[in-house]
Design brief:
Largest sheet: none
Helix content: over 70%
Number of helices: 11
Distance between the termini: 72 Å
Structural class: mainly alpha
Shape: globular
Radius of gyration: 21 Å
């Protein structure tokens, strides 16, 4: 698939490949593998929802957490439980942000930050355009953690290490020449999906627009947070003065 049909979401094939390998290990053929993948798609969401529920219930009402998790458990992109790239993207996104929140609340436990970076990498592999999530993660770490530089470096280091291993695997298996060739096809895009092909500059332009949008959103959120804190301080001073 890497050498013959290169599209951004093709990188998500790793999960189905692993599941099919498990199925083939126990079964003599691939007959029935589609049903197995559907069942696996449901079962894989169970630990995700449990982890999400445990974290949500610490911050919001227990009943609301319950309803949110039920909705996410029954909701599937494209109305299928198959572990395809859309459902993988949603699942890994949930785990990415849950562990990021866990780290913000427990900044002495660096393993939460490492886990968050790992799940963000899996989210990106599920759909590479989710790379923009890295900008959001760095912004959150800079705004809500104490050791800002250290946290950003650790998070970025984990992402860089995993990304290097992932790219290195394809270069080792397919060779550098073929890797560069299919990477150029990715950049040029598939005309059957995008109409006119896009250049690298156009891709970078779209990426920059997304980064600016996220940066602007974070800036607005910071201003609102600052104003709310000031209003709270003023109201407390008024009560104390009264």
């Amino acid at each position: 698939m890497f050498s013959e049909m290169w599209e951004p979401h093709q990188t998500s094939a790793f999960l189905v490949d692993i599941l099919m390998g498990i199925y083939r290990f126990f079964m003599p053929s691939f007959t029935g593998v589609a049903l197995f993948l559907q069942i696996a798609g449901v079962l894989l969401w169970v630990p995700i929802i449990i982890i999400l529920y445990k974290e949500l219930s610490k911050h919001i009402d227990n009943d609301i957490s319950h309803f949110i998790c039920i909705l996410l458990f029954v909701f599937r992109a494209k109305q299928t439980v198959f572990p395809e790239f859309s459902n993988m993207q949603i699942g890994f996104s949930i785990l990415f942000f849950v562990f990021l929140i866990k780290y913000i609340c427990n900044q002495d436990k660096l393993r939460y930050l490492v886990m968050s970076a790992i799940f963000m990498c899996l989210e990106i592999i599920s759909y590479p355009t989710c790379m923009i999530a890295y900008v959001a993660a760095v912004g959150i770490l800079l705004m809500y953690t104490e050791s800002k530089r250290k946290n950003v470096l650790v998070f970025s280091g984990v992402c860089a290490a995993l990304g290097t291993l992932y790219v290195g695997y394809f270069i080792w298996v397919r060779g550098l020449t073929e890797f560069i060739k299919v990477l150029s096809l990715l950049v040029e895009a598939d005309a059957s999906h995008a109409g006119d092909s896009m250049s690298l500059c156009q891709y970078l332009h779209v990426f920059a627009e997304g980064a600016i949008y996220i940066a602007g959103t974070l800036a607005i959120a910071a201003v609102i947070r600052f104003c709310l804190c000031k209003c709270k301080d003023i109201s407390l001073l008024a009560i104390w003065g009264g």
